[in-house]
């Protein structure tokens, strides 16, 4: 029951669950199908990558948009797309920053050769090309890191500069076919009757280019026309063909035992006997030792037709060697690779490029025989160290500079003289220098801020140009204080008018500072002087007189009313109460003369004071006068006496002693204890104020004549200050860089006997100390010996005894005819081991690395045969005497049975004595090359950029010049130059002339100003003392008129009122008494006029009249009137009234005079007023300021260049052009021009500055003549202005001592030699000789010992070449042809390429007709060449002969070639008529027109072409002149003939084809014939039944008589 239930349950399950299960499976399948369809309907789309953002370097990040789209194009949710294939939206990238510019650069290779680009779907053929075709050339463009030249992403370099194009269009010349030469002549045929071939060859002149046709066959063969051989009479020659040597193999053990019993040991060099045996057999299992085996070759006999023959037909005496000893090849064995070294990259540049690491392996055993040589022993690969974020940033380098040194002014030309010691006060333009050095900059970890390390490093690490180490500077010139003239003495004043006390005052005078002092300790002189005086007044009454008013009547006594105004001593009006203490008169008496009184003039002004001060010996006085104008009448008031007409008074009665304040110079700024300002220290960043200090000075009262006096004598109000505040300068400590790294000690090992190597370091002063700061250290350069320098290990090869001579095994040798004796050539070996310095065993690799090439472990040896001559070893050479002409010799003697053989006694073949010249130790030297430049010794050694120089280099003076030596021994062989001279040079003293600058005298003194009023010029000059030579500083531009003088002119200004005309009073009017007895009326009066200086110091001093304005000289004589009694008397004319500032003729100028006495009679008085118009430039003037032009740039007194000042002067100019006093313009208050001076610069004469000489370079040649050593210097600062120019010589050369050149000289290759046979495999051999020469073009080489040339080149590859000699019937290649001439590819005669090509070829020669089909092939080589030419290829033709001519191609140099000429332009070789001659019996004549065959004459058309040919009648039995008959039967050219010409029966058209009617007639005739035949058949059939046999007839014999109609 249970079992039944078990079976029923699945059935029920299927019944109940089957349908839902099927439905579920169906739904799942549908879902999967929908998923699959959806996978095809929805796809991911991505946008472009954005810019790299983030930190500099490899830590950047770039993003892009990713979205899901339907196949129809609309965007949907990301969930609809397959998430497994979702593209990335972010990617790490390299973020480029600006400072990466110095780390990366584009590397652009050269353009490749231009390649042909064909059009789409079309091929460019030779017919389509005319001159050139379009092509494309490419080049490699990569972004590299500069430091290790590794490739990085192009985006990094594109950040700074666009990527250079990698492709460009170009032109490709048209395809050029292969060009070959003409064939050579045919080779000769053999004389025998055997079948043979003869051949001819040609060579390739130019290879096919740009898709041209390949080269044709270079050989042609043809069978020789030899007579056939009779049966069995063939004659053949036989040749012995020698095969190549087989593989080297070890002998069979049986052969070893056999050889051990039969071998004689004759190969030991030491003469000791050793156990006989076959060497190599006992050392099979010892690695690294030599095993000697044997190798064989085949020998066959070949018949002349190439077939093999019996060997006996070719054997000869001696029998060729078919077996020889050889070395079993062993490959080089190396150790396992060492572990990789640490990565070379220990820091991060911020880029993804890796570093490098390396590993090594050593040699365990050397290659033996033909074994594989040793592989590379060192390997490098790129590497990276872990995560890049773990690496420290790599150092960067940048230029840094110290502060500028003080400005140094070079001496003036005049101061270059060594006798001058006035080098104080140099100023103006100069030079200042600074040290430029390279420092390392690193990035602080975690930030991108640069952290500077001030330690200097090698200047080669800094990229880009170094900053300038010198510049032009300016040192201000000291300027003396310039003051104006003294003013006039002022009145006697109280010191302080507000606080008046005491009866003592001072009179003062002043002067102003015109130019402030610059750079001088002495300040300006005192500006105020004073004189003590009594009764000082601060104010005074200024009184003006009114008119005289008579007391009674019109004349007689009267009075004047005085008007008084209170004024200060400065002329300013003040209130009257200030003058109330001072009395002043209000009325003064006067008198008006009556008609009969004497009339006297008014008092003249007081004359100038005769002295400026009063002393015991002289007092100042001044006077005034009046004159008699009219004489009195009788009864009138008489004239006063003469003494009453003059008055005198004392003036300037103050003493000549004056007082002034004098000060000492200010002290230096010192700290004020009252001011609590701390003095700080300044760093190297600039100036700063470090507190306030004080300066003090002493103040004295000085007396002009006797020196210092008590301060009471000087006014206290103008006492100068004795203390003032000042700014304390900051202390500047010395700033020094840290010491540089020690210069590296050599990392490579040094020999044990090498001299000690030193290393050094230095530091640089960045800022000098100042103002009491910390001083600079004394040590700036340190040196020490290198420690722990690795000493090179010493290893050496040790060679052991040579083994016995090993021959070919007997079993091999006995199989060869004629070789039964165990003798002849073999090989012997020896062990070579490596020893350390302590003679202990060492690895072979150590000796390979440190001891050079391994000595040969194998050498050839000889076991003499029974019939050979044997000798003792050579003896030592005999001793030499001291004479160089002697010789030395050595001997040997015959041994054993050889002494009895006659052939061994032949000393020519077997010499027993050898002689050679003795080595001579006498050497001779010969000068070689030119003298070197003159070398000044004693200059500083080579300096690195940034290292301070120790002393200036010597540029001129005594030196030496050198000439190289070549040293020869007694035989004329070049030897080391040290054998003749320790230095290898001839030395000779020489002199480099020193440059001398232009020398000028000192400046002369300034000339006086050229103008006494207004602007002028003053001049000074220098004279040429010595001209420059040898490149000295040139002279300034000299005066054109006088070539030896230099002028300097500067503007000057003379005050117009410095000098004035001084006039004395007029003399009394002098009446001519002869004409006038009354002594009255008209007369003359005179006065004296002189020019005086109005300067204070020289006031009133008479000077030459030329200094005063001559146009304004006063009159010295004038008319006067002495009025007679009773006449009307008038006064002198007053001054003319002023005209307005703007002259106007309508405005009048007036003057008046007064009536002093009325007339008694009725005679009227003369006029009392006059008028005249104001006319410009006559009595009316206008004034304006006038500016002169700018002067030249004026420098300080001791300056020769630099900053200066240019000036223009201001003057007052009158409208008539005259220069007048500035006061006239000032009174009018005219506007002054603002700028009268400006700064300017005079270019400095900068001398050229050169760097020190570098160290001498290595010789350009390691040996031989022509080697040069060079040293150079560079221009640090170029000359400017009139500075000393740079010398032309910036490099110096000297020849190197002529060292001998040792080299292996290879001899020419021998012809191919087949050892023991006539053909087959052989060797080409050449000799190798060690020679010495001097490497010159005409050098003669002399053989010397091989040891001097060092290691031998590999003998197998250099001295022997396998070759083959063809046997009869073999195919073989010819020798290479000569290289063709160098040819350029040209377009239209112009070179398309810079390098040309030349070719050579060799062809395959077939000797046997049987091998003609099997032998094919040829070889061609092409190489680039320089100096090529452009060649043209042109078709050449011969003359026509029977419508045929020869056409060939010729190169422009006359060479006939095949190929090169374009086929499309090839001329025809066979001439054809046009149109073609298709008429019956016609042919093409040599003239290129159609003619008729013999027996026919031409019928021509009107256009000259052949119409048809007509048979010439009557030529059956004779040969007629066709041309003559044709001429007779030529149709008449008439109109009738032309009309009926078309009707004639002409079956052919002009083109030679049959006409249509011919076909119609033929067809019609055919049908007629068929009809006739059919009709005849019917008729014959009907009558045949009744026909009887015909009667027998006699046969008819026909003979052809030559008739054409037959």
UniProtKB/TrEMBL annotation:
<feature type="compositionally biased region" description="Basic and acidic residues">
    <location>
        <begin position="262"/>
        <end position="272"/>
    </location>
</feature>
<dbReference type="GO" id="GO:0042995">
    <property type="term" value="C:cell projection"/>
</dbReference>
<feature type="domain" description="Spondin-like TSP1">
    <location>
        <begin position="598"/>
        <end position="656"/>
    </location>
</feature>
<dbReference type="InterPro" id="IPR056991">
    <property type="entry name" value="TSP1_TSH7A-B_C"/>
</dbReference>
<feature type="domain" description="Spondin-like TSP1">
    <location>
        <begin position="734"/>
        <end position="790"/>
    </location>
</feature>
<feature type="transmembrane region" description="Helical">
    <location>
        <begin position="1556"/>
        <end position="1580"/>
    </location>
</feature>
<keyword id="KW-0221">Differentiation</keyword>
<protein>
    <recommendedName>
        <fullName>Thrombospondin type-1 domain-containing protein 7A</fullName>
    </recommendedName>
</protein>
<keyword id="KW-0325">Glycoprotein</keyword>
<feature type="domain" description="Spondin-like TSP1">
    <location>
        <begin position="1248"/>
        <end position="1301"/>
    </location>
</feature>
<keyword id="KW-0966">Cell projection</keyword>
<feature type="domain" description="Spondin-like TSP1">
    <location>
        <begin position="1371"/>
        <end position="1430"/>
    </location>
</feature>
<dbReference type="GO" id="GO:0001525">
    <property type="term" value="P:angiogenesis"/>
</dbReference>
<feature type="signal peptide">
    <location>
        <begin position="1"/>
        <end position="36"/>
    </location>
</feature>
<keyword id="KW-1003">Cell membrane</keyword>
<feature type="domain" description="Spondin-like TSP1">
    <location>
        <begin position="332"/>
        <end position="384"/>
    </location>
</feature>
<dbReference type="InterPro" id="IPR051418">
    <property type="entry name" value="Spondin/Thrombospondin_T1"/>
</dbReference>
<dbReference type="GO" id="GO:0030154">
    <property type="term" value="P:cell differentiation"/>
</dbReference>
<keyword id="KW-1015">Disulfide bond</keyword>
<feature type="domain" description="Spondin-like TSP1">
    <location>
        <begin position="178"/>
        <end position="229"/>
    </location>
</feature>
<keyword id="KW-0812">Transmembrane</keyword>
<feature type="domain" description="Thrombospondin type-1">
    <location>
        <begin position="1475"/>
        <end position="1514"/>
    </location>
</feature>
<dbReference type="InterPro" id="IPR044004">
    <property type="entry name" value="TSP1_spondin_dom"/>
</dbReference>
<keyword id="KW-0472">Membrane</keyword>
<keyword id="KW-1133">Transmembrane helix</keyword>
<dbReference type="Pfam" id="PF23308">
    <property type="entry name" value="TSP1_TSH7A-B_C"/>
</dbReference>
<dbReference type="GO" id="GO:0005886">
    <property type="term" value="C:plasma membrane"/>
</dbReference>
<keyword id="KW-0677">Repeat</keyword>
<dbReference type="Pfam" id="PF19028">
    <property type="entry name" value="TSP1_spondin"/>
</dbReference>
<dbReference type="InterPro" id="IPR000884">
    <property type="entry name" value="TSP1_rpt"/>
</dbReference>
<dbReference type="InterPro" id="IPR036383">
    <property type="entry name" value="TSP1_rpt_sf"/>
</dbReference>
<keyword id="KW-0732">Signal</keyword>
<feature type="region of interest" description="Disordered">
    <location>
        <begin position="262"/>
        <end position="289"/>
    </location>
</feature>
<keyword id="KW-0037">Angiogenesis</keyword>
<dbReference type="Pfam" id="PF00090">
    <property type="entry name" value="TSP_1"/>
</dbReference>
<feature type="domain" description="Spondin-like TSP1">
    <location>
        <begin position="998"/>
        <end position="1041"/>
    </location>
</feature>
<dbReference type="Pfam" id="PF19030">
    <property type="entry name" value="TSP1_ADAMTS"/>
</dbReference>
